[in-house]
Amino acid sequence: MGRCSCDGMALTKHKTEWHEAATAPKDKLILADVGWPWPVSCMWDAEANEWAVALLNAETHDEKGRCVVVWWETEYERTIKAWTEMPSLPRQKGHK
Q1: How far is residue 35's CA from residue 30's CA, in Å, rounded to a whole number?
Q2: How many CA atoms lie within 13 A of 45 on its CB side?
Q3: Which residues face 32 on adjacent strands?
Q4: Cβ atoms within 10 A of the Cβ of 50, count?
């Protein structure tokens, strides 16, 4: 991950270490490889007996390509290919 400036904060470089799917924790939010071109945030849904994947969607509706509609969806995946810890953002002094 590169560096990004936001109110004087910079994201730290994060080295992604992918782990075997069988070792994925089922009690916290993780980033997972479910076969899409990007990693997705997901968590085990014990009731559905599947991985719940959070998807941010956006549609553009005007000729200038402005984003007019944004919404979250949940998809479910029976299996994941690999997983990694959800990276944390550095906290700026004075913020909680």
Answers
A1: 15
A2: 15
A3: 40, 83
A4: 15
